[in-house]
């Protein structure tokens, strides 16, 4: 009987996972191409050149769209209605900023082309502090000022502001008092500051902004608005930390097994008096599992994860070979894995689109251990074991709320499966290897 090959099996596992991810990426999403003449075409991108999009358009087949005719592409299955709401939100923000600027320019203390420093907006709500929503709102307003009002202000670069805040032992995402902000503004030679606050009222954010002179601290202009929290979070998604507390994952796990070499050993005699010999004929060198899991982040740096597999997907080519009078007679059925899974707690660290995980927990399994009575060969069901587990993993979030994860688990203590002969002697069959490898795709919400 052929032995399982670790590299070959793992390559097959990896290819299966890659095919799953490819189907998910290629077949799971369609875009809406909005042309400059107002035409809207929904389809999946097949190929992109320097000048054209080649798409599989719904109801039209393959189309080639010149890039200079495309006004906008809506990705991630956004609907036209969602984009319309976003456009209205953008108009409201534009108007908010325009009113703030106009009010400032109408003041006798206003200066032509002043140096403007934009301080992250403040909030007292813990949930908004964790999201960095104040920083995100300030960045959205900064983008609008740069796009629409750059000829009216000299805007201080974020890097220069961050450097000065750091020198004053302040943070872009932390609490900054008005007095501290004015002091920082004076140190970087800013003429005016944009200060503000954010609070949550039902499904809306209350945003208050004011332009303050650094010389006297006088408020020269003030405006407020109450936009939809959902739309503001979309607008500021590049700058804030959205919750994404829960996740689901699908994976393929490899587990190595080491057969124990023993035999032939005496295991009694037949009714006719012929000697019975046993040999460990196990060829069970690996097990593969489809695993489904749930992930939960109680805080953004801690992950609690539960994974479970109902059955192995690899064949159970293991058992005890029985010889009668030195001739092979039968392979007795042997114990095997049923379900398996693990529960872990992990520390999480983010590096751009990559996340690293380091943690530990327990690995459990349920199966059948081998047991032979004097009259028959049986397996005892409901065998249960728990092993401590140490985990290290890296995850690439290649698109919003979706990631591919490679994890390596180390089992400092392994489990040995045994068989008992008819004369009551127990022998080892195989042990679980200390390393397990898992590849999975995770979806967050």
Verbal overview:
By secondary structure, the chain is an alpha+beta fold. Helices cover 22% and strands 48% of the residues. The chain has helices spanning 6-27, 80-105, 126-131, 133-148, 158-167, 178-187, 229-235; strands at residues 31-35, 40-48, 52-57, 61-66, 70-74, 115-118, 154-155, 192-201, 204-213, 219-225, 246-259, 265-269, 275-280, 286-299, 302-309, 320-324, 327-332, 337-351, 354-372, 377-399, 402-410, 416-420, 426-444. Helix 2 packs across helix 7 (229-235).
Brief overview, please?
With 445 residues, this protein is an alpha+beta fold. It has helices spanning 6-27, 80-105, 126-131, 133-148, 158-167, 178-187, 229-235, and strands spanning 31-35, 40-48, 52-57, 61-66, 70-74, 115-118, 154-155, 192-201, 204-213, 219-225, 246-259, 265-269, 275-280, 286-299, 302-309, 320-324, 327-332, 337-351, 354-372, 377-399, 402-410, 416-420, 426-444. Helix 2 (80-105) crosses helix 7 (229-235).
Write the layout of secondary structure elements.
Blueprint: H1 6-27, E1 31-35, E2 40-48, E3 52-57, E4 61-66, E5 70-74, H2 80-105, E6 115-118, H3 126-131, H4 133-148, E7 154-155, H5 158-167, H6 178-187, E8 192-201, E9 204-213, E10 219-225, H7 229-235, E11 246-259, E12 265-269, E13 275-280, E14 286-299, E15 302-309, E16 320-324, E17 327-332, E18 337-351, E19 354-372, E20 377-399, E21 402-410, E22 416-420, E23 426-444
Parallel strand pairs: 6-7, 6-8
Antiparallel strand pairs: 1-2, 1-5, 2-3, 3-4, 8-9, 9-10, 11-14, 11-23, 12-13, 13-16, 14-15, 15-18, 16-17, 18-19, 19-20, 20-21, 21-23, 22-23
Helix pairs in contact: 2-7
């Amino acid at each position: 009987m052929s032995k399982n090959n670790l590299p070959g099996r793992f390559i097959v596992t990896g290819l299966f996972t890659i095919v799953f991810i490819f189907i998910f990426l290629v077949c799971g999403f369609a875009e809406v191409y909005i042309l400059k003449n107002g035409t809207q075409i929904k389809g999946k991108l097949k190929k992109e050149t320097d000048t054209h999009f080649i798409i599989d358009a719904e109801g039209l087949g393959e189309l080639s769209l010149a890039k200079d005719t495309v006004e906008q592409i809506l990705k991630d299955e956004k609907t036209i209605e969602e984009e319309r709401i976003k456009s209205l939100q953008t108009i409201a923000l534009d108007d908010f900023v325009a009113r703030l600027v106009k009010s400032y320019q109408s003041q006798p203390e206003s200066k032509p082309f002043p140096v403007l420093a934009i301080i992250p907006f403040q909030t007292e709500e813990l949930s908004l502090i964790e999201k960095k929503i104040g920083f995100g709102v300030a960045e959205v307003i900064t983008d609008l000022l740069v796009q629409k009002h750059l000829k009216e202000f000299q805007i201080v670069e974020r890097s220069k502001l961050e450097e000065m805040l750091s020198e004053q032992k302040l943070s872009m995402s932390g609490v900054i008092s008005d007095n501290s902000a004015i002091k920082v503004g004076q140190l970087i030679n800013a003429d005016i500051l944009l200060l503000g606050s954010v609070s949550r009222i039902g499904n809306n954010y209350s945003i208050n902004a004011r332009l303050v002179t650094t010389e006297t601290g006088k408020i020269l202009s003030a405006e407020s608005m109450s936009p939809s929290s959902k739309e503001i979070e979309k607008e500021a998604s590049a700058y804030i930390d959205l919750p994404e507390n829960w996740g689901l994952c699908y994976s393929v796990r490899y587990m190595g097994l080491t057969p124990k070499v023993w035999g032939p050993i005496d295991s009694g005699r037949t009714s006719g008096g012929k000697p019975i010999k046993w040999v460990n004929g196990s060829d069970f060198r690996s097990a593969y599992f489809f695993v489904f899991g749930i992930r939960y982040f109680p805080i953004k740096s801690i992950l609690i994860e539960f994974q479970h597999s109902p059955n192995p997907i690899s064949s159970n080519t293991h058992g005890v070979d029985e010889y009668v009078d030195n001739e092979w007679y039968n392979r007795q059925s042997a114990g095997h894995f049923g379900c398996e899974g693990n529960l872990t707690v992990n520390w999480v660290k983010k590096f751009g689109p990559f996340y690293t995980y380091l943690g530990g927990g327990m690995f459990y399994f349920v199966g059948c251990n081998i047991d032979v009575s004097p009259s028959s060969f049986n397996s005892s069901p409901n065998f249960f074991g728990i092993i401590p587990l140490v985990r290290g993993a890296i995850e690439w979030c290649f698109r919003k709320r979706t990631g591919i994860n490679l994890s390596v688990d180390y089992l400092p203590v392994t489990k040995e499966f045994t068989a008992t002969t008819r004369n009551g002697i127990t022998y080892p069959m195989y042990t679980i290897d200390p390393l397990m490898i898992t590849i999975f795709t995770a979806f967050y919400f």
